[in-house]
Amino acid sequence: MDSQEQRSKQLKRLFREAAFASGSALSAFLKEFAKSHSGCYFQYTTISALKGMYENGCLLLTRATELNDVDEMKIQPAEKKRSYVASFSALRSESIAMWTLYGTPAKEGIRIRFPKKTIDKLLSVVRGEDKKLFAYGVRSLKRIGTCKKAVQVEEAYFTDVVYRGKNALTWRDLCVAGLPQLGQMIEGDSLLGQIKDDFWRYENEVRLIVKLKSDAKNYPPKIAIPVKRLLKDMTVVLGPCFAEGDESEFIKEVEEKEKVKFTKSVCTRKVRFPKHRPCKGCKHCIVHK
């Protein structure tokens, strides 16, 4: 048996033990394993989001009440309201499904590469001595400078995500079946932001999660982590249908000032995305927001 096979067997044993123990044990396992990651993570988004990140020097995290997996909505409301998530994919190869879902409209779609060291630096910022971040009462970065205020952080961590099927959990390429307490693990709050339905497994997701201290006042829609000095670590892939001419001046400025590297998607000129038309009365459709 080679070392890789031994490693796989050891990980499956640890994963199985944690999954059968409790939601809290599985949560700790996912957080601990994420510390040993190496390499890079990827975020499919738009050039507008990158502009906001560049102009305002911050990365926005979305409140957990806005996550797109219905199963995640079963987590206790009090915990969701004060928890914020930045999602990344650990899948190195490009995904047409991810481009279609998150890189819309297609002419604005980009894929940002975040080295692991950048995630570690983000956590260091959040865990700083004062543990303060900025909160924003907006859903985008377009008018971000007019509505910021300080918020207090209770906890921040980077974690793997586990996927739930019928009586089974899948993590990486490993599956554990026959879990009697799976429903309780979903409905409790110990795996907040760490467990999704198996339908989403193709995303190979990892997450940065920040939990604010309890506050009687309403929690903001988003919070922000300063990233101005971290932009130089990033690489940006322009999507398959990206309209580069519209953003050439911005791209040139970011390349020169921040040394951010821009490349073209391997899918360029190999795929055609449908043109989306705004739907009437749509409140939750990501494509049309």
Shape: globular
Largest sheet: 6 strands, antiparallel, barrel
Q: How many helix segments? A: 8
Number of DSSP E strands:
14
Residue runs with pLDDT of under 50 for 5 or more positions: 138-147, 281-289
Overall tally of structural domains: 1
Bin the strand percentage.
Answer: 25-35%
| Major β-sheet strand ordering | 2-3-11-6-5-12
Quaternary structure of the protein: single chain
Helix content: 25-40%
- What class would the helix/strand composition place it in? alpha+beta
H/E element sequence = HHEHEHEHEHEEEEEHEEEEHE
Distance between the termini: 52 Å
Tell me, rounded to a whole number, the average pLDDT: 82
- Compute the CA-based radius of gyration: 19 Å
What does this structure look like?
The protein is built from eight helices and 14 strands. It has 289 residues and is of the alpha+beta class. It has one domain (3-288). The chain has a six-stranded antiparallel β-barrel. Strands 1-4-13-14 form a four-stranded mixed β-sheet. Strands 9-8-7-10 form a four-stranded mixed β-sheet, covered by helices on one side. The longest helix has 19 residues, at 3-21. The protein is globular.
What are the main properties of this structure?
6-stranded antiparallel beta barrel; single chain; 30% helix; disordered C terminus; 8 helices; alpha+beta; 289 residues
Write the layout of secondary structure elements.
Blueprint: H1 3-21, H2 23-35, E1 40-46, H3 47-56, E2 58-63, H4 77-81, E3 83-89, H5 96-102, E4 109-115, H6 116-126, E5 132-136, E6 148-160, E7 162-165, E8 168-171, E9 174-177, H7 182-187, E10 195-197, E11 205-212, E12 222-226, E13 235-238, H8 244-258, E14 261-264
Parallel strand pairs: 7-10, 13-14
Antiparallel strand pairs: 1-4, 2-3, 2-12, 3-11, 4-13, 5-6, 5-12, 6-11, 7-8, 8-9
Helix pairs in contact: 1-2
